[in-house]
Amino acid sequence: MTIENQRFLQALRCEPVDRPPIWLMRQAGRYLPEYLQTRAEAGSFMNLCRNADLASEVAMQPLRRYPLDASILFSDILTIPDAMGLELEFVAGEGPVFNKPIRDDADIHALPVEGVMPKLQYVFDVVRAMREKIGNKLPIIGFSGSPWTLACYMLEGQGTRDFATARRWLWQRPEMVQLLLDRLSHQVADYLAEQAHAGVDVLMLFDTWGGLLDEPNYRDFSLRSMHRVMQDLRDRHAVQLPVMLFSKGCHSQVEDMIASGCDGIGLDWRANIDTVMQQVAGRVAVQGNLDPTSLLADEDMIAPVIRARFSKVVNKPGYIFNLGHGLLPQTNPDSVTTAIETVHALAAEACTAGH
Ligand code: CP3
């Protein structure tokens, strides 16, 4: 099937496009009143994720409001550990919690190797329902948490400020953490391959907690396991889709990321997008990186900020506009319109100016 809107796919090959592709992390979510209504109908966030009709509906909601160039699977990264038996719950006001976190070596040895994917069938059903609704208009992004980021939640039992328990494991029991990451890499590759078979066009690894690690540990634990996932996808599953890595807080390790063989990298808002685009020089696509809190400012602040930050990169091949992290629930949906319109205007001006 040929996708009509090719901007995102072309940018991932660093080919020139008429304007940069735009999509936004957490584009479907709590800042949209229609999302809150559908979630209420589903009863809870996980019920929503498990209901292909409703999950595909919320994935469509931002596409109706904004001229976005990609859609993203509506699900969560913590579905894999849930399917491995850790029992995920979203506690109101507290975020994700596992009822059965990993406590000792025996828990890691006991993790299931077989039979995990059938428990995730509901995710692949959402991909198929989304494809049904989107047709061939837009590419769909499939995703997983990176093995390290999943391990953080599994060892910690919940989200915390510094994931000190997970990081203590890394110093005290490095070989056990590698074993856990190997187990997870295998599941993550299977999971992404199943999403590919269900019809996604691009794969993304969210490595939200890669930036908690020092440089050697980022390379040896987080990036190494993402590299394994990519190898496994290509060698064991013959999946050739483009893969993007988003290692939050790791822009000083761009060279290592490129060497991993990915097709694109996501940047958080602390990276200097001009510097990174120059350094990368068309070897991979670069996505990012507007500070999501900038969209909480008065609306007339938004255009000047986007102009100041993105005028140099907006028409460079391989540039993808996005935020540096997910849209915040407090965001006014009109501010998203302003941001998108500003990027469009900026791209048109840069084009006439011959940049
Ligand atoms: O981007 C999208 O629109 C696609 C859907 C998506 C969700 N989560 C939906 C979601 C994606 C790609 C994710 C990834 C995810 N989930 C990450 C990696 C990216 C990142 O944000 O760093 C992480 C770390 C998680 C784990 C997670 N899920 C947390 C910590 C929370 C609670 C806090 C929060 O940020 O909301 C969630 C819940 C979640 N995942 C919601 C949504 C729409 C909100 C659920 C609700 O409606 O209450």
Structure description:
There is one protein chain. This protein has 355 residues and is an alpha/beta fold. It has a single domain (7-354), classed as Alpha-Beta Barrel (TIM Barrel). 49% of the residues lie in helices and 12% in strands. The chain is built from 15 helices and nine strands. It has helices at residues 7-12, 33-42, 45-49, 52-65, 79-86, 105-109, 121-134, 147-156, 164-172, 174-198, 215-235, 254-259, 273-280, 299-310, 333-352, and strands spanning 71-72, 88-91, 95-98, 140-145, 202-207, 243-247, 264-266, 285-290, 319-323. The strands form two sheets. The protein has a seven-stranded parallel β-sheet. A two-stranded antiparallel ribbon has the order 2-3. Strand 6 (243-247), helix 12 and strand 7 form a beta-alpha-beta unit. Helix 2 runs antiparallel to helix 4, helix 4 packs across helix 7 and helix 10 packs parallel to helix 11 (215-235). The protein is globular and about 60 Å long. The model has no long low-confidence stretch (mean pLDDT 97). Bound molecules: coproporphyrinogen III (CP3). Coproporphyrinogen III (CP3) binds next to strand 3.
Distance between the termini: 33 Å
Instruction: Give the C-level CATH assignment.
Output: Alpha Beta
Shape: globular
In terms of structural class, how would the helical and strand content be classed? alpha/beta
Tell me the fraction of residues in β-strands, as a range: 5-15%
Low-confidence regions? none
Can you summarize the main beta sheet? 7 strands, parallel
CATH architecture grouping: Alpha-Beta Barrel
Strand count: 9
- Average pLDDT, rounded to a whole number, is 97
Tell me the radius of gyration: 19 Å
* Fraction of helical residues: 40-55%
Small-molecule binders here are:
coproporphyrinogen III
CATH topology: TIM Barrel
Helical region count? 15
Strand order of the largest sheet: 1-4-5-6-7-8-9
Q: How many structural domains in the coordinates?
A: 1
The arrangement of helices and strands along the chain is HHHHEHEEHHEHHHEHEHEHEHEH
